Predict the 3D structure of the following.
Amino acid sequence: MKAKDGGRPPAGRRLARRVTGAVLWGTLSVLIACEGKAMAEDVSPALVRAMAPTGTLRAAINYGNIVLAQKGADGEPAGISADLARGSDGV
């Protein structure tokens, strides 16, 4: 939804889209990366092919929210976004 003046959507709407997208992608990446056989069987092969056609699910880290993503002392991504992208066992 665009603002009445034709500009960008209101900040609240942009934030809601970002959060919704992050939650959906995070949930999907956890489901696909999960090593549990029962969990992996719940994800349809068509969904896996659609999200990772080459067999590798790629992730992008948005450093715009310091709570979710930071650069570690070694320059590597850190935080919950990085953990989800790596398929961390701690998630």
About this structure: The mean pLDDT is 75.
